[in-house]
Amino acid sequence: MDQLQLLIKPVSAACNLRCRYCFYLDESKYWKNTDFGMMDLETAGCLIRRALEEAEECTFAFQGGEPMLAGLSFFRFFTEKAEEYRKPGQRVFYTLQTNGTLLTKEWVEFFKKWRFLLGVSLDGTRKLHDENRTDASGNGSFSGVFKGIRLLQEAAVPFHILCVLTNDHAERIQSIYRFFQNKGLQRQQYIPCLDPIDAKRGKMSYSLTGEKYAQALKTLFDLWYADVLGGNPVYIRQFDNYLSMLLGGQPEACTMYGRCTMQNIVEADGSVYPCDFYVQEKYCVGNVKEDSFLDLAKKAQGSSFFEKAEKRDIRCGDCRWYPLCRGGCRRDCDEMADGSFRNYYCEAYQEFFGYAIRRMEMLAARIERRQF
Ligand code: SF4
Ligand code: SF4
């Protein structure tokens, strides 16, 4: 195969923080054990060898919990093994999503050496961040994260900010955006906070309702648009993806493809799942210690996960926004009493696209004419 992207969870969902909205704590109810432990070097070696044998180009993306808890020795082993198995000219990419609190100079040098692209979770200002992102004693993690961010900035290691949107955050989106800008954090991604998988939507203290989401998207768009036109471009993943789609490009995220795709989630014990939101025993498609990635992909296609994933909001079929929205993430779709599915954020997307489409099209046209 040409390209292979693996999302590896070296310490499963283990984390040094206890964020109030963490969906892994909810997901772990569906596991046989409370977590999958830590990946041993034999499993890591096996997955590296298979991946580099089977694909021309590989992206190893690390996620947790907090993947840095695996320790530098694990990551040194991983990158050195990948060098050993890598064929001449074969391209290997690394990404890692972290809460940022464990970053030290030594780690930062390592990430720089191996050209990791990092994602750092930061929910805006100190007050907003510390409301939800706490350690086990309930202390906010903002100071620790910011120390890490400074180290990355000083060493010029590329990273983007991942900001989770709750209703509180949505209401304060302008101050969050301005705060990021003032701190030189120009690459941003905003994601709606997830309610627990079986809970009624919008009822948690950290929920994000459709109404607030629509308002946040519109405000954020106004700010972003003014900065882009003013010659101070900020990368906001969702908006930049819409622009690229308007120009005929492919979106980067499966949530914008219009269908679920195999995400190759590799748990610490080597077991593989199609999507990080559904790491449940019933959706396990195999194990890197026994199966090739080609076989895992084939097994996934016939699995109950993809059968379920096909079922989307029936309104999408004749929706004018489908070319951009594509129905959103399957995890946001709820089953109705009559068996049909509805995207919880559908009305928010409709409102947002109606509000922003003219300006998005104008920006796309200017990019096409190379006026930026
Ligand atoms: S459920 Fe969402 S995140 Fe998972 S594969 Fe489908 S679109 Fe992607
Ligand atoms: S706006 Fe709603 S109906 Fe339209 S594509 Fe998106 S989810 Fe589907």
Bound molecules: iron/sulfur cluster
| CATH top-level class | Alpha Beta
Quickly count the helices. Answer: 14
What best-fitting shape do the alpha-carbon axes yield?
Answer: globular
Q: Which structural class fits the helix and strand makeup?
A: alpha/beta
Quote the CATH topology: TIM Barrel
> Which regions are unreliable across 5 or more consecutive residues at pLDDT < 50?
none
CATH 2nd-level architecture: Alpha-Beta Barrel
Distance between the termini: 36 Å
Can you summarize this structure?
40% of the residues lie in helices and 15% in strands. The chain is of the alpha/beta class.
Defining traits:
TIM Barrel, 10-stranded mixed beta sheet, binds iron/sulfur cluster
Give a topology summary.
Elements lengths: L2 E6 L14 H5 L13 H14 L2 E6 L9 H14 L5 E8 L6 H9 L2 E6 L4 H7 L9 H14 L3 E7 L1 H5 L1 H10 L4 E6 L17 H20 L5 E2 H10 L18 E2 L4 E3 L12 E2 L5 H9 L2 H6 L12 H4 L7 E3 L5 E3 L2 H23 L4
Parallel strand pairs: 1-2, 1-8, 2-3, 3-4, 4-5, 5-6, 6-7
Antiparallel strand pairs: 8-9, 9-10, 11-12
Helix pairs in contact: 2-3, 9-14, 10-14
The structure holds iron/sulfur cluster (SF4) (2 copies).
